Amino acid sequence: MPDNASYMFAAYIASAVVVGGWLLSLVSRARAMARRGSAIDAAPRS
Amino acid sequence: MPESFAQPMPTMGGAGRTADKPVTVFDWLLAVAVVALAAVIARAIWFTPPEALQGEAQKIFYIHVPAAVVGLYLACPLVAIGGAMYLWLRDERLDRLAESSAEIALVFLSIVLVTGPLWGKPIWGTWWTWDARLTSTLFLWFILLGYTVLRGAIEDRQQRARYSAVLGILAALLVPFIHLSVRLFRTMHPQPIVLTPDKPKLSAEMGLTLSLAFVAFSLLFVAMLRGRLKYAALRDQVEARESGDA
């Protein structure tokens, strides 16, 4: 049987990086959007 | 991994008011999905036998195939259905469903396109080959990338929703072609063996691990979709308030 476990581990790690990166990206975008919403709330009304 | 934000949630209307509840894009379902995925990966690595000829690299199968199935047969159809229903009903929730599904399809197809070469190198002896299955999947990935770029380039919400609905429907038309590509063309990519009566069967342990992987990836998809939909709704609220619509 060939010794190629490193490819398996690389694939699992790469997949975790792809999903984790997207999750962090969405959290970051949602935080930025919440800040924009708060800025609207805090803005003085004419 | 439930995530709460320190920032208060913007209200739909009402000058100077903020809701007490913090913004939460991910909920308990994501935690369940992450635990399920971790359990599946542990089972695949330590408790599932390797395939006799391919060795441990064959275990890439347990993420490559579920990611492809969920991305192609769950996320991509939702892009088309959401887009088509938007063109009919003009309901912004359907546009949000389509755009959220497209982004998640892009994530799952990225997993497919990363894990495929990592499986192909030790088994085929090459990272990549321009055969029909691989090339058409890469083409769909580029179309979905174009879909997200298109959405960022158009400011008018209705125009953005219309154009991206058409592109999303066209993108999903590639899915049947990708599915049939291994039958229509001579490819290095193997034909499906799971649920195919005349092909060799997986062992019971391998079949169970694959089934659990499908469940875990489906849970992950639903958790990601719920989070992305919440973000899209929040963004639309904020943009509407900024433009003075709400």
Biggest interface and residues each: A-B, 31 and 52 residues
The rough form of chain B would be described as globular
User: Which fold name corresponds to the CATH topology of chain B?
Assistant: Four Helix Bundle (Hemerythrin (Met), subunit A)
Overall average pLDDT of chain A: 92
Secondary-structure content class of chain B: mainly alpha
Shape assignment of chain A? rod-shaped
- Measure the end-to-end span of chain B: 32 Å
The proportion of strand residues of chain A reads: under 5%
Order of helices and strands of chain B: EEHHHHHHH
Q: How do the strands line up in the largest sheet of chain B?
A: 1-2
For this structure, what is the CATH class of chain B?
A: Mainly Alpha
**N-end to C-end Cα span of chain A:** 75 Å
Count of all domains of chain B: 1
Give the SSE string of chain A: H
- Assembly of the depicted chains: heterodimer
Number of helices of chain A: 1
Number of strands of chain A: 0
Are there runs of chain A of 5+ residues with pLDDT below 50, and where? none
The averaged pLDDT of chain B comes out at: 88
